[in-house]
Amino acid sequence: ASHDYLPLVQLQQAQGPFQLTESFSEVVQIPLDRLHRASPYASHRASLSPMSPGARSSPEAGPCCEEGEEAVSGQDVGPEDLESASWATAVALAWLEHRCAGFFEEWELVAAKADAWLQAQRLPEGVDVGCLKGAARHLFLLLRHWDENIKLNMLCYNPNNV
User: Fold this and answer.
1) Domain ranges of the chain
2) What is the pLDDT of residues 112-153, one digit of tens each?
3) Is the dihedral of CA 37, 41, 44, 48 positive or negative?
4) pTM of the entire structure?
5) Which residue from 76, 84, 149, 150 has the highest number of Cβ atoms inside 10 Å of its Cβ?
6) Which of 20, 48, 25, 23 is nearest to 132 (CA)?
7) φ, ψ for residue 144 (rounded to 5)?
């Protein structure tokens, strides 16, 4: 039995959330910049290097969040911390569903705790839990299609044609 969800479980904080850190990025095997780019929060996309002016309006991001909104948070967490923790928590839930579905009974309580934390947060206006979860699921669909395209290109690649 594969227990590749255990490293993620170890990153869960006592109250239930996950943090958007390099460690989290490594465990879910998604580069931190890609996590920021796919986030529904404008502040995450704005934090990307100014390599592309389109970083603020990334097509990967969901349409549910408005730029310039002030976050209202509970539990003495700053707005950016709440955005990062809520996005990481939504990604963690989607990762468990996509990568570890066969072990649902083993991580069910971890997910319930994360979901309860997420539901209890006062998220910024224009964002709700459904939006976050939808954006996280969308991220995994994009990644899966990207992986399938890479594999297809590898199958079709013939060095003699170059």
Assistant:
1) 6-161
2) 999 999 999 999 888 999 999 999 999 988 887 776 666 666
3) positive
4) 0.73
5) 84
6) 20
7) -65, -45
